[in-house]
Amino acid sequence: MPEDIHKLVRRLELVPHPEGGWYRETLRSAYCTTIMYLLPAGQFSEWHRVRDADEVWHHYAGDHLALHTIDEQGRHERIVLGDDVHHAIVPASRWQAAVPIGDDWCLVGCTVAPPFEFARFEIADRATLAAAFPEHERLVARFSRGTPQSG
Question: 3-146: what CATH class?
């Protein structure tokens, strides 16, 4: 990882996130949680979902971010967060993955309501997700590491 990214991670007091990238929780209330989330170029947020909560992604700084979602019917959507679009909503249980568009990094925030709990967070198993949505097999492979994890 480039030195400027190391400095940013230290300055923002971020830690590795299980889905990829770096994060820090910035708010936990009875109603929601928020995190600051950094994705360096060349890294991605692996396919995951929050089973019981909606998530709002907010673009803060750096490169644009491509946010991919797949709903239960297999519909894929690609939303680019950046200059013109500053936030996107991902409904509960919708599969999502993200990647920076550029050569540096992307800093975003995520707000989850009701509050996020790792016990209700799931990283997709590549084979299972590809079998559920064979029309998106290449997209699933692109944003997965192949190792299932869940809280």
Answer: mainly beta
